[in-house]
From TrEMBL:
InterPro entries: DMP (IPR007770). GO terms for biological process: endomembrane system organization. It is found in: Membrane. The lineage of its organism: Eukaryota, Viridiplantae, Streptophyta, Embryophyta, Tracheophyta. Keywords: Membrane, Transmembrane, Transmembrane helix. This is DH200=94 genomic scaffold, scaffold_222. The keyword Repeat does not apply. It is a multi-pass membrane protein.
Length: 215
């Protein structure tokens, strides 16, 4: 009788140990999967910074700023042109942040602009996605548009030709360090809070990226 009780106790202890080991393994697997997901999210967002940041806008500014400002030797006309050029590029940063795309049942790709009610396509709004509310304007879009605008304006206003054009005296340390600091902060925020928009300029091969799927 005592031997049977001891055997039962030993079996119960072994079963409890096995259950604890299984729970430990499951917890470790969950922790590893969460870590891998976070790591993939960060790496994926980092790889897409050239899409999220106003790279094309900054490149266009870098190319045309010396021409518009006459290498910083501005007169009244050049100042007006430079101001208009900056306003146009700043507006483009905001505009492209609101663009998005979707595919119809036939697989055709359509681009449009996010609105409060949904997405307005460039063909006059005739074509709509299956669930228009999934594409409506959100607070996160304002957040990403603000980041893009801040990144561009910081770079543009620190450009030597712009400073010379408007006769602004700023220490060189400021013009060299501020764009780097702002760029780092904006890039970090873009990586941590990526945009799910797949608008104009979004690589075609990444349209099916699982990280940016809405469904």
């Amino acid at each position: 009788m005592n031997n049977s009780l001891q055997q039962n106790l030993i079996e119960n202890v072994d079963q409890e140990d096995e259950i604890k080991n299984l729970r430990t393994i499951v917890d470790e697997d969950v922790a590893d999967s969460n870590f891998i997901y976070i790591l993939n999210t960060i790496l994926s967002g980092t790889a897409r910074l050239n899409v999220l940041l106003p790279t094309a806008t900054i490149l266009a500014f870098t190319i045309f700023a010396p021409l518009v400002t006459n290498d910083g030797k501005c007169k009244s006309l050049e100042r007006w042109l430079m101001g208009s050029f900056l306003a146009f590029l700043a507006a483009s940063c905001v505009f492209f942040s609101f663009t998005d795309s979707f595919r119809t049942a036939t697989g055709r790709l359509h681009y449009g602009v996010a609105t409060i009610k949904g997405i307005w396509t460039f063909n006059g709004g005739k074509t709509k996605p299956c669930v228009p509310s999934d594409y409506r304007l959100r607070c996160s879009d304002m957040f990403h548009a603000s980041l893009s605008l801040i990144a561009f304006l910081t770079f543009a206003t620190s450009h030597s030709d712009v400073l010379d054009c408007y006769h602004l005296v700023v220490p060189r340390k400021v013009t060299n360090s501020v764009p780097l600091v702002v760029g780092f902060v904006v890039s970090f925020l873009f990586v941590m809070f990526p945009s799910r928009r797949r608008g104009i300029g979004y690589p075609f091969l990444l349209q099916s990226d699982a990280l940016y799927q809405r469904y």
